[in-house]
């Protein structure tokens, strides 16, 4: 797909999402700060279907306002938006939560003050309703909000594109489009990687997630050399994964409730008894 076409698609899709926001202040903030980057642009360049459009914000104020807007739309008790000491924006729940839509009831349990939370409010029955509102929140985690109609709002990172990409792992995902000036930036190294369908690891704050993501890309026919995997391993070797806080930080955002259960088990364990052997044991039990 040509860059001109990609810009037109993004402008149309993100414009429709913005039009759905009923709060004018939130809409204005979003319009002035929205960045689309990640897999959507890569998929369009490869003429593949787009799974979803990942939206980031360059300003903390915009990320916080959008998060509060959709938490209110989600309309479930005990859920709120919170800014952490390190400046991160997270969606948190205080205590156990039991909520549902269309008869789908799930129980969420907290094992600490701030826990990773996965709340799914979509069911097959709801999805088939033709007059269901567009861009409604269907899924929430601590660091992202999934909307219907292929939109995902990422809260964990915000800032200018280069700042956001400091948290990215593979170079082919670093192309981006900015809403405020309708500018599409296609990086030469990203385009080379896309043409070759080769995974080039540029370093990430979350190398554990990068290793997990390999499975997805390899299934899609991508290739990776041993050197790129070694770079991930070197970064992982610097992590103290037996520390519950480090483990939770590395696994946050990964789409598996099993990982969240592992974190819960680790937090309940005497810290002096948490080691690699214990983690292997509970991982085998969970999976």
Shape type: globular
Give the termini distance in whole angstroms. 40 Å
- Order of H and E elements: HHEHEHEEEEEHEEEHEEHHHHHH
Low confidence ranges:
95-128
Count structural domains: 2
In DSSP terms (H or I, runs of 4 or more residues), the helix count works out at: 12
Mean pLDDT across the residues is 83
Measured by DSSP, the beta-strand proportion falls in 15-25%
**What is the CA-based Rg, rounded?**
19 Å
**Major beta sheet, strand line-up:** 7-8-9-10-2-1-11-12
Helical fraction: 40-55%
DSSP strand tally? 12
How would a crystallographer describe the biggest sheet? Answer: 8 strands, mixed
Description:
- By secondary structure, the protein is of the alpha+beta class.
- The chain has two domains: 3-197, no CATH class; 239-286, no CATH class.
- Helices cover 43% and strands 18% of the residues.
- It has twelve helices and twelve strands.
- It has an eight-stranded mixed β-sheet.
- A hairpin with a 5-residue loop joins strand 3 (79-83) and strand 4.
- Residues 95-128 have low confidence and may be disordered.
């Amino acid at each position: 797909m040509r860059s001109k076409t990609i810009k037109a698609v993004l402008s149309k899709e993100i414009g429709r999402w913005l039009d759905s926001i009923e709060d004018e202040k939130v809409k204005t903030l979003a319009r002035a700060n929205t960045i689309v980057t990640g897999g959507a642009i890569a998929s369009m360049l490869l003429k593949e279907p787009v799974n979803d459009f990942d939206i980031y914000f360059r300003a903390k104020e915009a990320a916080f306002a959008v998060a509060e807007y959709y938490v209110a739309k989600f309309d479930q008790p005990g859920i709120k938006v919170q800014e952490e000491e390190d400046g991160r924006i997270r969606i948190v729940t205080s205590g156990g939560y039991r909520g549902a839509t269309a008869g789908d009831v799930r129980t969420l349990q907290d094992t600490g003050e701030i826990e990773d939370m996965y709340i799914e409010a979509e069911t097959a029955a709801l999805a088939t309703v033709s007059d269901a509102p567009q861009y409604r929140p269907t899924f929430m985690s601590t660091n992202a909000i999934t909307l219907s109609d292929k939109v995902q709002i990422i809260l964990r990172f915000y800032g200018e594109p280069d700042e956001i990409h400091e948290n990215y792992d593979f170079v082919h995902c670093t192309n981006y489009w900015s809403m405020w000036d309708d500018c599409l930036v296609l990086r030469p190294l990203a385009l080379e990687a896309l043409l070759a369908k080769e995974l080039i690891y540029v370093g990430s704050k979350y190398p554990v997630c990068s290793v997990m993501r390999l499975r997805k890309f390899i299934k899609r026919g991508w290739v990776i050399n041993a050197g790129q995997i070694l770079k991930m391993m070197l970064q992982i070797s610097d992590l103290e994964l037996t520390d519950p806080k480090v483990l939770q930080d590395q696994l946050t955002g990964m789409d598996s409730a099993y990982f969240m259960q592992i974190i819960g088990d680790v937090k309940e364990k005497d810290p002096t008894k948490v080691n690699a052997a214990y983690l292997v044991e509970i991982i085998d039990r969970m999976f």
